[in-house]
Amino acid sequence: MTAKTFNVLVLCTGNSARSILGEALFNHLGGGRVRAFSAGSRPTGKVNPVALETLAKHGVPLPEARSKSWDEFVGMHAPKIDFIFTVCASAAGETCPIWPGHPTTAHWGIDDPAHVEPMEARRVAFEKAYALLRERVEAFVKLPLETLSTAEIKAAARKIHEEAAA
After folding, report:
1. CATH number for the domain harbouring residue 34
2. I need a labelling partner for 49 at 20 to 30 A (CA). Which of 2, 60, 72, 150 fits?
3. C-beta atoms surrounding 125 within 10 Å
4. Is the pLDDT confidence value at 93 over 60?
């Protein structure tokens, strides 16, 4: 019997910074148990170069990084998503598509580092966003997802966020 691979979708409005970091971290830390994607409600069409710089600095690969619409994940050819994490308040408050399979959702709000000025402060803001997401992703992928109920996973995801925010 093969172990289940869990599909994660990390959402933000522009899909250029925080959700890109989240996608890369889930894929990197998930140990093959998690396959992650990211998308945005209004994608910018380009990945923020400081997001890629931050990932490279930490040795976290994301070779196919691209900014894309969440519409790619609602069609009949889309991967079945098990968990959705919103990482910005805008995306969390928007009317989302009807996700096939009704995945478990959680909000892990992270301040937007993309528009911080000057550039050195932006790099610091990306480091902070990276560290916060890494802490949450590490905690989530350690959960016994195969044996927890949907309600238990949702509660655990909420607790991970609250503990990281404290």
Report:
1. 3.40.50.2300
2. 72
3. 21
4. no
What DSSP assignment string belongs to 13-79? Answer: SSSSSHHHHHHHHHHHHSTTSEEEEEEESS--SS--HHHHHHHHHTT---TT----BGGGGTSTTSP
Q: What is the pTM of this model?
A: 0.93
Q: Quote the domain boundaries for residue 88.
A: 6-165
Could you tell me what percentage of the chain is helix, strand and coil, using 3-state DSSP and rounding each to the nearest 5?
A: 40, 15, 45
Number of domains present in the structure of the chain: 1
Tens of pLDDT, residues 111-142: 999 999 999 999 999 999 999 999 999 999 99
Buried b (16+ CB within 10 A) or exposed e, 86-118: bbbeebbeeeeeebeeebbbbbbebebbbebee
pLDDT for position 95: 62
Nearest to 83 by CA among 36, 126, 49: 36
Between CA 109 and CA 107 the distance in angstroms is 6
pLDDT at 165: 75
Phi and psi based region of residue 156 (left: phi greater than 0; alpha: psi -120 to 50; beta: remaining): alpha
